[in-house]
Design brief:
By secondary structure, the chain is of the alpha/beta class. It has one domain: Rossmann fold (3-Layer(aba) Sandwich), CATH 3.40.50.620. Helices cover about 40% and strands about 10% of the residues. Strand 1, helix 2 and strand 2 form a beta-alpha-beta unit. It starts with a helix and ends in an 18-residue tail after the last helix.
Length: about 190
């Protein structure tokens, strides 16, 4: 998604910002920040337009997009237009985010479509005033979800060719998303 958006929108760089704790996953077990950090670093290695940013990992508590965008806007040159890339399914729930109108003021939202998510349905679900700040980006038909990858690992199936070899090796070496022999489910979810 990031490379497709970078190329089609003409972005100079793309920041990858793993969150500390998603407000939508409070109370759920997620992978430790250090492991998520390493997976992101491994996944984006080799692309000079991709940068890793710890802005949310450096803050305690839940990670709210609006706070992150404010901080990024403050440190960017005044004329910089910021695009926020996310899945179209997340945009559908924008009204439930903290300060959605402020998010749309600070950034241009790029909603990457995926199979089974209709951009028309999402547009109808949003207030008309928000629609001009949302750009829908049709993505190549690759229906790979993090939930599915975790389930494949948990059940002993391969994730080869579904993620980078470096991330696949890291997941295996760290024993992520496996079920403990005692029957206790040790699978953990990655953050938002």
């Amino acid at each position: 998604m990031a490379e497709e958006a970078r190329e089609r929108i003409g972005l100079e760089r793309v920041l990858f910002v793993p969150n500390q704790v998603s407000p939508f996953k409070l109370g759920k077990v997620i992978s430790p920040g250090a492991q998520r950090t390493e997976m992101v670093r491994l996944a984006i290695a080799g692309n000079p337009a991709f940068e890793f940013d710890t802005i949310e990992l450096d803050r305690p508590g839940p990670s709210y997009t609006v706070e992150t965008l404010r901080a990024i806007k403050l440190r960017a040159p005044a004329d910089t237009e910021i695009y926020f890339l996310t899945g179209a399914d997340a945009v559908r729930d924008l009204a439930g985010w903290r300060e959605p109108e402020e998010i749309l003021r600070l950034t241009r939202l790029v909603a990457a479509t995926r199979p089974g998510v209709s951009s028309e349905d999402i547009v109808r679900a949003l207030p008309a005033a928000w629609r001009e700040r949302i750009l829908f980006l049709e993505m190549p038909e690759l229906d790979i979800a993090a939930t599915d990858l975790r389930e494949r690992v948990r059940t002993g199936r391969s994730i080869r060719y579904l993620t980078s070899p470096a991330v696949e090796e890291f997941v295996i070496m760290q024993g992520l998303y496996r079920v403990e022999p005692s029957g206790t489910d040790a699978a953990v979810e990655m953050g938002e």
